[in-house]
């Protein structure tokens, strides 16, 4: 399910939303490593709670497209590259877009309300955890139909949560909030009645 065997062109054609977010995050990271300009872009977009309080509301959105280093970027983009396509295929482009964006935004909102005024954050991990949360909802509805999905997803979610609290300098608030939001949206999207409705409309 999560092994990617598509060619580059097939991947782009089959998973346009995932491809868009991969390209956007990589492009913005490349901009941020340009001397002077990159520093200005980071300063303008990083999530800083007291600046959000002062009215810079865009910082509830922009942090999910910024990364603090190449390893930070690679970890999040690798996760998106592996897990994103299957969710985009199952949920559809618009629903995947909703899961990704709302999980990332609410992760930043939770960070704003639950962390100190001087707290700073950036990264796409809240949105990525939203993808895992949505898969968790799918497991909830299909646990007796697709036991192999449960065997794959649940250990990944558990390990991801553990690593959140083991690694230093991790915004655990964003990770957990993104996971919860993705799960709640997934409960709505993957409800059996909705699945039946989608199938009937495609006939």
Describe the structure.
By secondary structure, the chain is mostly helical. The protein has a single domain (8-202), classed as Rhomboid-like fold (Up-down Bundle). 73% of the residues lie in helices and 2% in strands. It has helices at 8-14, 16-32, 37-45, 49-53, 70-91, 93-114, 125-142, 147-166, 172-189, 192-202, and strands spanning 47-48, 120-121. A two-stranded antiparallel sheet has the order 1-2. Helix 6 crosses helix 7. The protein is globular. It starts with 7 loop residues before the first helix and ends with a helix. The model has no long low-confidence stretch (mean pLDDT 92). It is a multi-pass membrane protein. InterPro entries: Peptidase_S54_rhomboid_dom (IPR022764), Rhomboid-like_sf (IPR035952), Rhomboid_protease_S54 (IPR050925). Residues 55-190 form the Peptidase S54 rhomboid domain. It comes from Sporosarcina psychrophila. It holds the Pfam family Rhomboid.
Give me the secondary-structure topology.
Elements: H1 8-14, H2 16-32, H3 37-45, E1 47-48, H4 49-53, H5 70-91, H6 93-114, E2 120-121, H7 125-142, H8 147-166, H9 172-189, H10 192-202
Antiparallel strand pairs: 1-2
State the strand order across the main sheet: 1-2
- Could you tell me the radius of gyration in angstroms? 17 Å
Considering DSSP H and I runs of 4 or more, what fraction of the residues is helical?
over 70%
CATH-defined architecture = Up-down Bundle
Shape estimate:
globular
Output mean pLDDT.
92
Q: pLDDT below 50 for ≥5 consecutive residues: which ranges? A: none
By oligomeric state, this entry counts as: single chain
Question: How many separate helices?
Answer: 10
User: How many domains, in number, for the residues?
Assistant: 1
Strand content: under 5%
**What structural class do the secondary elements suggest?**
mainly alpha
CATH class: Mainly Alpha
CATH superfamily: Rhomboid-like
* Major pleated sheet: 2 strands, antiparallel
């Amino acid at each position: 399910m999560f092994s990617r065997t598509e060619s580059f062109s097939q991947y782009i054609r089959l998973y346009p939303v995932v491809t868009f977010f991969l390209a956007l995050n990589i492009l913005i990271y490349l901009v941020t490593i340009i001397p002077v300009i990159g520093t200005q872009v980071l300063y303008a977009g990083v999530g800083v709670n007291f600046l959000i309080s002062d009215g810079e509301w865009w910082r509830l959105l922009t942090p999910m497209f910024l990364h603090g280093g190449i390893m930070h970027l690679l970890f999040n983009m690798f996760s998106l590259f592996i897990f994103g396509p299957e969710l985009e295929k199952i949920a559809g482009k618009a629903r995947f877009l909703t899961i990704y964006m709302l999980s990332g935004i609410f992760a930043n909102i939770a960070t704003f309300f639950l962390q100190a005024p001087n707290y700073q954050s950036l990264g796409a991990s809240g949105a990525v955890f939203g993808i895992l949360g949505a898969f968790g909802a799918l497991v909830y509805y299909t646990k007796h139909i697709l036991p192999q999905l449960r065997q794959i997803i649940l250990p990944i979610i558990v390990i991801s949560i553990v690593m959140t609290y083991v690694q230093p300098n991790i915004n655990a608030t964003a990770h957990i909030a993104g996971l919860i939001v993705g799960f709640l949206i997934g409960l709505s999207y993957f409800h059996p009645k909705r699945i039946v409705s989608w199938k009937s409309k495609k006939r």
